[in-house]
Design goal:
The chain has 146 residues and is mainly alpha-helical. Helix content is 79%, strand content 0%. The chain has one domain.
């Protein structure tokens, strides 16, 4: 019984993060597209469609996690998104390409290159932590913690 409440709280928290992250991107797709472009990972023709689709995927994934439906699917999508985010940030840290993640805010902040790189390292740690929450959700669905 204790695991059920932990699982529900983790799903609620994880889902809320995805919902909150999606809203500024949905409201301002051009700014989010610019953030994606700054990562220098995707070909140009993919950037605008990604800026339009990814936030809605985040929103629906978050809603599913908060509401507790399609939990395994939502957790799997959340995990895939987080893996993509970790790889994108990690590659850019390795290249020393200082970008603002665009995770919760799609407007550029006035930061130095070193401040951006420091923020990117914290984003990497945060996303790995969120990945652990995803792992808990997936494990709970396998155990049948409903």
């Amino acid at each position: 019984m204790k695991n059920v409440w932990i699982t529900r709280l983790v799903g609620l928290a994880l889902g809320a993060v995805f919902v909150v992250a999606a809203i500024p991107k949905i409201v301002d797709p051009p700014s989010f597209a610019h953030m994606i472009y700054n990562y220098r990972l995707l070909p140009g023709f993919v950037i605008n469609p990604a800026a339009l689709v990814l936030p809605w995927l985040e929103l629906f994934t978050g809603i599913a996690l908060v509401a507790g439906f399609w939990r395994r699917t939502a957790a799997t999508i959340a995990g895939a998104l987080l893996l993509a985010f970790v790889l994108a940030i990690g590659v850019n840290i390795a290249r020393r390409n200082a970008v603002q993640c665009g995770c919760f805010d799609v407007h550029a902040k006035n930061q130095t290159r070193e401040e951006k790189l420091a923020d990117m390292r914290w984003v990497l740690v945060r996303d790995v932590g969120l990945g652990l929450l995803v792992a808990q959700q997936i494990a709970a669905t396998r155990r049948g913690d409903d």
